[in-house]
Amino acid sequence: MYCNCKFLCMIFSYWKCLWRWTTSQNLSSEDLQAVLGKKEVQEALFQGLLSYKPNSPGTFSQLESKYPDQVKLLNTVQTLQNYIDVDSFQIWDLIKHYLCSISYGNITNALKNIAFLDTRPTFILPNVWKFYYCERLFLLRLLQYIIENKNNANHKYHKEFSHIYNTSGANLMSSLVGQFEKVTTSTPPPRKIHNDFGNETIRQEWAEYNLREQLALLQLIILLIDEENIPVEHFQTLFKAFRRCNFGKNQSYHELLEERHRDMCMKIVYLETCLFIVVSDKQYL
Ligand SMILES: *[C@@H]1O[C@H](CO)[C@@H](O)[C@H](O)[C@H]1NC(C)=O
Ligand SMILES: *[C@@H]1O[C@H](CO)[C@@H](O)[C@H](O)[C@H]1NC(C)=O
Ligand SMILES: *[C@@H]1O[C@H](CO)[C@@H](O)[C@H](O)[C@H]1NC(C)=O
Ligand SMILES: *[C@@H]1O[C@H](CO)[C@@H](O)[C@H](O)[C@H]1NC(C)=O
Ligand SMILES: *[C@@H]1O[C@H](CO)[C@@H](O)[C@H](O)[C@H]1NC(C)=O
């Protein structure tokens, strides 16, 4: 997918776009600063998956009164909320970003082109749903990339990365542990209601994203343990989470997993064991 969205990135976190820009080292340091230096972007980055706020009563009607003529898209927001517990305005943004990504538009005119876009629920629902889960992963990947390269003197942006980390990274360990806890206790979306997604594979896809998120978070935590100690209470929380799924061997949604997920499950087993050993070795032996 083409990504011409400098302006779009600046408005708010469009993680895939930011990730591409950052990893291709294609921005000037000023442009990078203009994007990653923004307070709301850094906040979201370090809150990670917790930057997606749960839906709260009343916000949908606020959204509705703001865009009274967008009945179709409002319905999409509402239906999506049966499957993902995310704030109405954040879902609205996700839809707009998704529409930009398929129409090459920018966020300002995202809704102007709507007549030319496919907004049938059977098309837009599964696609925005996927877009959302991909964005979550890009968010985690970008954070990992920043931490990995902040001390790498050969990286074009290492100073900027180091600065971002120093300014916003203070509570990162506790945030990551909280995210891991949340991801490992979340439950698959309900079976289809009114045939929203056309087919049943959404639960299997969810399971796959959930495994990917666990992996990304474990990698981040291991990376961070290299930087700083992990407080005992966080380690205990992690350890409980590991035990709950038998060190990755038994996810609560195991009935959704298929042979092709085996590798990912094994990676979780290895990473959890590895994390346990690294911490014991570094801190408690
Ligand atoms: C970024 O990449 C594009 C093409 O891929 C190139 O035209 C442009 O000069 C690059 N910009 C920077 C700042 O490196
Ligand atoms: C968004 O796109 C429209 C039409 O293509 C253009 O007129 C407008 O300047 C763009 N806005 C920004 C901020 O790039
Ligand atoms: C960030 O903090 C580290 C450790 O205190 C320090 O060595 C580094 O220079 C700081 N980076 C920036 C960009 O200030
Ligand atoms: C179900 O949907 C997914 C993606 O939305 C698609 O890849 C798959 O082929 C569909 N399966 C059937 C049986 O229609
Ligand atoms: C995995 O957990 C489920 C319940 O969540 C339990 O029924 C099953 O026996 C467990 N399997 C293993 C191999 O521990």
TrEMBL record:
The keyword Signal applies. Residues 1-24 form the signal peptide. Pfam families: Nup188_N. One of its GO terms (biological process) is protein import into nucleus. GO terms for cellular component: nuclear pore inner ring. Keywords: Signal. This is Nucleoporin Nup188 N-terminal domain-containing protein. It comes from Diatraea saccharalis.
